[in-house]
Amino acid sequence: MGLFVAQLLTGLANAAALFLVASGLSLIFGVTRIVNFAHGSLYMLGAYVGLTLMNHLPGHFGFWGSIVMAGLIVGLIGVVIEVCVLRPVYRAPELFQLVATFGVILVIQDLALMIWGAEDQLGPRAPGLRSVVRILGEPVPQYDLALIAITPFILFGLWWFIAKTRTGILVRAATQDREMVGALGVNQSWLFTGVFFLGSALAGLGGAIQLPKGGADLLMDLNIISAVFVVVVVGGMGSIPGAFIAAVLISVLNVFGVAYVPQSTLVLMYVVMAVVLMVKPYGLLGREEKAGEHGQVGEVERPIRPAGLVGRSLVVVLLAVLALVPFFASTFMQVLITDIVIFCLFAASLQFILSSGGLVSFGHAVFFGGGAYVSALLVTYSETPMEVAFLLAPLGAGLLALGIGWFCIRLSGVYFAMLTLAFSQLVWSLVFQWGSVTGGDDGLVNIWPSDWLSGTTAYYYFTLALGVGGILVLRHIIHSPFGYTLRATRDSARQAEATGIDVKKVQWLAFALAGAMAGLAGGLFVFSKGSIFPNELEIAKSFDALIVVFLGGVKTLSGGVVGAVFMESVKDWLTRLEYWRLILGLLIIAVVIIAPEGIVGSLRKFGERIGLVKEQESMQ
Amino acid sequence: MNAILEVRDLSKSFGGIKAVNGVSFDVAPGELKALIGPNGAGKSTCFNMLMGQLEPTSGTVRLQGEKITGLPPRKIWRRGVGRTFQITGTYQSMTVAENVQMALISHHRRLFSVLPYAHTLYRDEALALLDVVGMAEQADRACAILAYGDLKRLELAIALSHNPKLLLMDEPTAGMAPKERINLMQLTADIVRDRGISVLFTEHDMDVVFAHAHHIMVLNRGELIAEGTAAEVRENARVQEVYLGGGTLYAAETEDA
Predict the structure, then answer these.
(1) Residue of chain A nearest B105, judged by CA positions
(2) CB contact under 8 A, A477 and B114
(3) How far is B38 from chain A, CA to nearest CA, in Å?
(4) Other Cβ atoms within 10 Å of B240 Cβ, number
(5) CA dist list (Å): A103 to A38, A86, A430, A545
(6) A153: three-class secondary structure by DSSP
(7) Which residues does chain B have within 8 Å of residue A492's beta carbon, measured at their own beta carbons?
(8) Which chain B residue's Cα is nearest to A490?
(9) End-to-end C-alpha distance for chain A, whole angstroms
(10) Residue A57, φ and ψ in degrees, nearest 5
């Protein structure tokens, strides 16, 4: 009994930081409709800033003053981010905003590395709260009890601010109808900036307040963000009481998970989320969002046509050159091109569902890694011949996509994105924690192709045939009736439904097809490397694909492939630099703001201007 | 003659408010029937129930004797009901012809086909339909750059693509210039007469209604208060009372405004 109570109290104490970060994220989303992926980074900054302040300010006042000041400073950093990065993209589609905040994550990571160094730092203990209290015989840290006492005050303070103050009323009004609030003469930009300040300050506060328990390190941004997303999604996006309930639920569950089922703590969290969303797709206290006719922001995508004679000839010439590569290039070059082709297929599969389907999937790596693991597991445990195991990679990933898609397709927009992310994390946590089967962090090794494909050149041709073949198949499908039907559901779901199209079914099948193609890329990957590790399923991998599609051009057909070639080519050179994340992050932010058409879109515009490409009728 | 569409006791409540209350009517083959009423009378709610976008609280809708209440929009469409929207819903990233081809692909049940190029499928049929509404010259323009009136005509071509028995048109001339309104409605009237299609439409413009509708139904506060020919409705005292606040209803003017 005593142990039980002690664990419950630990869980409640852990909920404090999680709630602070989640409520900030929820608040920002409610008003601005921006999902701030960089919220974990603000949490990390709060920890580092708080630590620095505590080292200079002594005593009770110094400790608690540092926490408050860390919150305020991080709030101001949030304002800088809002004004410089997000203001220019408020009217852009959600993908642009999400990618921009991802750029911010990279920038903050390197800035923190520059300022505070790579070593983990221990937090100081709170003055006067250093010992433990015995409750029913079990030791409970005093600081935990302090956190449990403080959190309800913060919740109450937030509630009072939102329910009782004039600014709070504006915030609530903006959550329901931003345009109306603007039309009533409220300066929206300052309202947004204010909310961003508050949300960021809460994240900073969360980072500083957990210092005595967790300290500060460079991984805390991505470590907390997936838990925060779970909390926000489970609680209902935009709902602060929901965030509180979910934070407590998840934290308590985690503590008990560690005690009783230590192998599956992460899995448990995602399973809870999946169950909640099956019953209540918009979270415990979230309200249903009517998916209206979003339309497209910016220039409408143009009508498409299969490549003409010139385009096809260029592709044939390119393929001929690639086919000749082994005769004049080094082994290293062949391996590099193999990697590029695999990544291109992965990016093309994401672009299919994202651009043609208008469905922004945030967990696409789960199908890439999923396919790879299907092959790897078959080879490891049942000595399946490589050819069969390879074939089962796209099939397995396709089935996985059918399963995940069944849940996700019911939602749209940001909700769809969050749900795909959450499901991919669920699979990742399964692979990561089920060490006895998947090898966990050590991965699965010795997954080599059959003899006839074992040479570098042989596998090069194999990859070239299937990778480029896969890309061409996807491209053809976009021009087929099914591809047109998919675009129809994206352009106007209402019209599609009113002319005999089963919108959800079409989206579901397209999602499965994209998953199968990503699985094919995963199958090619695992046999080219001979091994597979859980990081191929991670958020970071999903983001890699999103970023290349984005860099290449969302509203184009070939953006993903072009972006992937560009990225894989510069990555080798870029990652040799010490602060490559900073450069990449700034590049991403610059593209979002300055050239949202991406590489292909910008080139096409340039071509039209100098008369190389035939110009189309522009908007009247 | 049997009715194409039979609506019986159709009702819809939102919370405690009865948006549509016990509405019953028939649409006969070849008939052009208008449903009018002041703002908030329940016209759009009625329409959304007929087309499956809204589930009725009670009542039935039968199409040629078969019950279609509760079916999703796509299944009602498959049974031969076409629809145009008050705010046009076209596929912005496709050409004019492709918009019609898309509906034809759906009609011929080729939605899940992945082998042929979509832009070559049923192109001649699509061009013929576009010719009917006078849009053939613009077939290869991008839909995103069309003028509003042309979008409306395109929507009409799409609605005709599966040879419907019945067309439901929600405010077909909303947002158009007066001259364009008369032209579009004349075009619609000619097409449905030639093809024997029945039409039920809602409309704000009384010129359009009185010039083209064979029968007019008046809806007020969710209830049908009158039904009849243009002359009968115009003379109906109750209609004058609730619909026009007791004022005089002038004869329809069909000349250009």
Answers:
(1) A481
(2) yes
(3) 25
(4) 17
(5) 8, 11, 28, 14
(6) helix
(7) 89-92
(8) B91
(9) 74
(10) -110, 120
Cβ atoms of residues A488 and A289 within 8 Å: no
Say whether residue A271 is in contact with chain B using an 8 A CB cutoff. no
Q: Which of A217, A220, A221, A219 is nearest to A120 (CA)?
A: A217
Q: Write out the H or E segment, with its range, that includes residue B200.
A: strand B198-202
CB contact B158 to A (< 8 Å): yes
Q: Which one, of A51, A3, A8, A48, lies nearest residue A144 by Cα?
A: A8
Residue whose tokens read 């675009």:
A487
Q: Which residues pair with B5 in a beta bridge?
A: B27, B63
**What is the identity of the amino acid at A411?**
L
Nearest chain B CA: its distance from A486 CA (Å): 9
**A492 → closest Cβ in B91, B103, B115:** B91
Closest CA to A556 of A508, A602, A519, A617: A602
Using the predicted structure, report yes or no on whether residue A393 has a pLDDT greater than 90: yes
What's the pLDDT at A368? 97
Mean pLDDT over each residue of chain A, to the nearest integer: 87
B74 interaction partners in chain A (CB closer than 8 Å): 497-502
CB contact under 8 A, B142 and A616: yes
- Give Cα B117 distance to the centre of its chain: 32
Residue B107 has, within 13 A of its CA and on its CB side, a CA count of 20
Q: Which residues in chain A touch residue B107, judged by CB atoms under 8 angstroms apart? A: 500
Question: Is residue B57 classed exposed, middle or buried when 0-12, 13-18 and 19+ CB atoms within 10 A define those classes?
Answer: middle
Distance separating alpha carbons of residues B252 and A607, to the nearest angstrom: 55
Q: Which residues contact A310 (CB under 8 A, 6 or more apart)?
A: none
**Cα atoms in the 13 Å half-sphere on the side-chain side of B17:** 8
Spatial contact of A22 and A232, defined as CB atoms under 8 Å apart: yes
Q: Within an 8 Å CB–CB cutoff, is residue A312 touching chain B?
A: no
Find where tokens 């926490």 sit. A67
Interchain proximity A301–B93, CB inside 8 Å: yes
DSSP conformational letter for A61: H
Contact A429, A539 (CB under 8 A): no
Q: φ and ψ at A24, to 5 degrees?
A: -60, -45
Cβ <8 Å between B106 and A476: no
Contact A500 B74 (CB under 8 A): yes
Cβ of B93 and A491 within 8 Å? yes
Q: Is A492 on the interface with B (CB under 8 A)?
A: yes
pLDDT band of residue B185 (cuts 50, 70, 90) is: confident
What is the interface pTM, i.e. ipTM, of the complex?
0.90
- The first and second tokens of residue A457, run together, are 């050149």
User: Could you read off the pLDDT of B120-162 as tens digits, one per residue?
Assistant: 999 999 999 999 999 999 999 999 888 888 999 999 999 999 9
Please tell me which of the candidates B78, B89, B142 has its beta carbon nearest to residue A500: B78
In the predicted structure, residue B251 carries a pLDDT above the cut 50: no
| Secondary structure, 3-state, A242-308 | HHHHHHHHHHHHHHHHHHHCHHHHHHHHHHHHHHHHHHCCCCCCCCCCCCCCCCCCCCCCCCCCCCC
Nearest to B51 by CA among B73, B34, B32: B73
Domain ranges, ordered by start, for chain B = 1-80+164-257, 91-163
Contact B202, B44 (CB under 8 A): yes
Which amino acid would we find at residue A476?
Answer: H
Q: How many residues does chain B have?
A: 257
Name the token pair of A557: 């057909």
Q: Which CATH class is domain B1-80+164-257?
A: alpha beta
Which of helix, strand or coil describes residue A346?
A: helix
What band does B67 get if pLDDT is binned at 50, 70 and 90? very high
3-state class percentages of chain B: helix first, strand second, coil last, to nearest 5: 40, 25, 40
Q: Any chain A CB within 8 A of the CB of B48? A: no
Domains and CATH numbers, chain A: 2-247 (no CATH), 333-610 (1.10.3470)
